[in-house]
Design goal:
The protein is of the alpha/beta class. 31% of the residues lie in helices and 25% in strands. Helix 6 (157-169) packs parallel to helix 7 (187-204). Bound molecules: adenosine-5'-diphosphate and magnesium ion (MG). Magnesium ion (MG) binds at residues 54-55, 179.
Length: 321
Amino acid sequence: MKKLFEIKNLSVHYPVVDGIMGNIKGYVYALNNVDLDIYENEILALVGESGSGKSTLGNSILKLINHTSGEVLFKGENILNKTKKELKGFRKHSQLIFQNPYMSLNPRMKIYYILREPFIIHGIKDKKEINERIKKILELTGLSEDVLNRYPHEFSGGQRQRIAIARAIILNPAFIVADEPVSALDVSIQAQIVNLLTDLKKHLNLTMLFISHDLSVVKYISDRIAVMYLGEIVETAPKEEFFTRHKHPYSQALLNSVPVIGGRRENQKELLSGDVPSPQNPPAGCKFHTRCPYAFDKCRNEHPDLCRLSDGHYVRCFLFA
Ligand code: ADP
Ligand code: MG
């Protein structure tokens, strides 16, 4: 498998600024020494509770925010030290789909102009080419041509997300970050959008980082899973392997918290009791030890590395080191 992205030792620490004087009084350690590869034509799901650093990772590999240290190689080249001008090609080939399509679609623009905008930004002026591409993309995303003359507010959440997806893929990107793209939608609509994304991946050779806190959606769409906790990857595995042989106590806890149709799970342990510690003041040792039912002395004092269990399956936990 060819690597599209190689994320190396990537950290993002947001400064916390004192209100009046503007002094830096601490940092939010949102992302800490993340090492992760993304392979061509896979859907990699990034899961974890709210605040674990998922969006920070998605945004930093698109270079939409400043990083603190580390590298992000896209096709072998570090995009994090490129200039705006040098990034133009990369921008064309990488796109972001947000949770809330209301925010990403300009309310004052008709859909035709929303879909045309990426071409204008990238200096493509051939009207015939643009219109043909728009027509094609409407077909691919299950929209009819009469959407073009309407405004974003005239559509339901699901339709709006289709339009946002159409806009994101209209220049044929190689890579998409989909950041909780179905979390704001009704459950009945979620499946349609997930199906659309899966189809598009197949037809367009897309590679996707699919961010979600919902493992039931991830089970459907992803090829591989990466689990984040307090700004660290704690487990990665191919999908089947993850759902049958996940190892990290936090993965276990996340899976236990997925609702089961028809009632409670048997032997359910209340694993995720307790709050997520503040990323401004993360625990020493293993970051999960404050909530882990299996924690022992070493976990409180030493920080575990990611260790390899089998092909593609890595876990950051002393139980398996
Ligand atoms: P997730 O997407 O998993 O919910 P985020 O990446 O949005 O997590 O956030 C990770 C942590 O960083 C959270 O504690 C969040 O409050 C903090 N954070 C996110 N963006 C900023 C910012 N611009 N400035 C300061 N803190 C931030
Ligand atoms: Mg987020």
